[in-house]
Specification:
Blueprint (H helix, E strand, L loop, with lengths): L7 E6 L6 H10 L3 E5 L5 H18 L4 E5 L14 E4 L4 E5 L9 E3 L3 H6 L5 E4 L4 E9 L2 E8 L1 E4 L4 E2 L12 H13 L3 E4 L5 H11 L4 E6 L2 H5 L1 H7 L2 E5 H7 L5 H14 L4 E4 L14 H12 L4 E4 L1 H4 L4 H16 L2 H9 L8 H15 L2 E7 L4 H8 L6 E5 L2 H7 L5 E5 L6 H14 L8 E7 L8 E8 L2 H7 L3
Parallel strand pairs: 1-2, 1-16, 2-3, 3-12, 5-6, 12-13, 13-14, 14-15, 15-16, 17-18, 17-20, 18-19
Antiparallel strand pairs: 4-10, 5-9, 7-8, 7-11, 8-9, 20-21
Helix pairs in contact: 1-12, 5-7, 10-12
Length: 481
């Protein structure tokens, strides 16, 4: 399904968007990728949503990417005797391992790993950062804290520890069970929460065993510090600004977002900007002007995708939220400034033949009257390199692998087409021209650029480029049948 924009839209499914009609309407409105949040919903509910997505994909002959998002370890305080207490600024409060219900003076924190890592001066954030504690004294089973920011604390509120690397695996027992279930079901991307270091991704890769591509969620300060190492072993990245904005000063998040997006683009790895993009549309059919500007900023930065969370999963206006993102993207990408920004931000190091081929394809397309770049790709690498160039013309990614086509549905500018196996380059040329005509990206008086690797069906062999006219005479000359 051809879009009138290059950036992709990720829509999270949930109670507001779990039936066939709504999911199909979301795709038609602009959702290219559907996110299955493993934090919510039973395996049976998630399997049903997965089935509906694949049904719509088959009906519309439009590859759709499915992104499963693991919950990650959840750090929470225990229950309180009164259900809720008020902590006052400059007061004292203790966290410990005792099973007793909480009081105004203390509460259980049933995570011994946290106490192992704490030190004097470390901070703990409770209830999305609304309460801030500073450790004054700690041991293997307690932490005596000063209340820096007071407020209401209640049963099982979440805890963030921004100042230390916790000795916790990124995958909980629930995550491991969810991982096997969802990978066996069949997904394209698996988002890994609570990433602190590159080793977390390597551990997950062993369990995934090639069944999905790995997306690292950057939501902790330690992940930002280790980002280069994390990026190297990841297939893609999600800038999860919600938790990142809890554990870091909020003013730090925008420059971090910009920096991470640029690094992902230079590495030719997809990057999603996520969380609170159109938050008001959970309850309102219209976004705020600030939210629209936030979405536009992510587009101007060159992100591969922008994501809706609760807006499409639990909000009252899921389809309108997708339509809003779609309309903002179309408007931004038609702005001449957008093209200038994309071209000025090309900083990729080109060290291979494939790098040179895709760069040449983009230059030819932009200096002549070329309507599209058609790239044959077995694993998706050539399409990723082409997308990194951010060309002014559409990209048609042709692959014989449905898994590759689905995975590329997350990548900037790619129109994914299943092409069948090719053994000769002239077959590829004919297939590319027919795809350009069928997608409405060129007519019979126009031309396309075609890149491929010879011999075919061998990873990493992109080594040929051709400009071809999109007319029946050429097709017949190369394929008389």
């Amino acid at each position: 399904m051809r879009r009138q924009r290059n950036i992709k839209i990720v829509a999270t499914l949930g109670p507001s968007s779990s039936d066939y009609e709504t999911i199909k309407a979301l795709h038609l409105a602009g959702a290219d990728v559907f996110r299955l949040n493993m934090s919510h919903g039973t395996h049976e509910e998630i399997a049903e949503r997965h089935k509906i997505i694949r049904q719509i994909e088959a009906e519309l002959d439009s590859p759709i990417a499915i992104l499963a998002d693991l919950q990650g370890p959840k750090l929470r305080v225990g229950p309180f005797e009164n259900g809720v207490e008020e902590l006052t600024e400059n007061g004292k409060f203790r966290l410990d391992l005792k099973d007793d219900v909480g009081t105004k003076a203390r509460v259980q924190l049933p995570h011994p790993e946290i106490f192992q890592a704490l030190h004097e001066g470390a901070h703990l954030l409770i209830n999305d950062g609304k309460i801030k504690l500073m450790v004054e004294k700690c041991g293997p089973d307690f932490a005596d804290c000063l209340v820096v920011n007071g407020g209401e604390i209640s049963d099982r509120k979440g805890v963030n520890v921004p100042d230390v690397i916790l000795p916790l695996a990124a995958l909980s027992e629930k995550d491991r069970a969810d991982l096997d279930f969802i990978c066996d079901l069949g997904i394209d991307w698996l988002a890994l929460s609570f990433v602190q270091r590159a080793e977390d991704i390597l551990e997950a890769r062993k369990l995934i065993a090639g069944r999905a591509s790995v997306m690292s969620k950057i939501e902790k300060p330690s992940a930002v510090k280790s980002f280069d190492d994390i990026l190297e072993v990841s297939d893609g990245v999600m800038v999860a600004r919600g938790d990142l904005g809890v554990e870091l000063p909020v003013q730090n998040v925008p420059p971090i977002q910009k920096r991470l997006v640029r690094k992902c683009r230079a590495a030719a790895k997809p990057v999603i900007v996520a969380t609170q993009m159109l938050e008001s549309m959970i309850e309102s059919p219209m976004p705020t002007r600030a939210e629209v500007s936030d979405v536009a900023t992510a587009i101007y930065e060159g992100s591969d995708a922008i994501m809706l969370s609760a807006e499409s999963a639990a909000g009252q206006f899921p389809i309108q939220a997708v339509e809003t993102m779609n309309n903002v993207a179309i408007e931004v990408e038609s702005d001449p400034t957008y093209t200038e920004v994309m071209e000025a931000s090309r900083r990729a190091k080109r060290n291979s033949v494939a790098d040179g081929i895709v760069s040449a394809a983009r230059e030819i397309a932009e200096t002549t009257d070329i309507k599209a770049i058609c790239c044959f790709t077995q694993t998706g690498t050539t399409a990723l390199l082409t997308a990194r160039e951010r060309p002014r013309v559409p990209i048609i990614a042709l692959s014989s692998e449905i898994e590759t086509a689905r995975r590329l549905a997350l990548t900037w500018g790619t129109n994914c087409v299943l092409s069948g196996n090719k053994t000769r380059f002239k077959e590829a040329v004919v297939s590319a021209v027919r795809a350009a005509l069928a997608e409405g990206l060129a007519n019979e008086t126009e031309q396309v650029v075609i890149t491929a690797g010879v011999p075919f069906n061998i990873t990493g062999t992109t080594n040929i480029l051709r400009v071809a006219p999109c007319n029946e005479r050429m097709i017949y000359a190369m394929d008389p049948e």
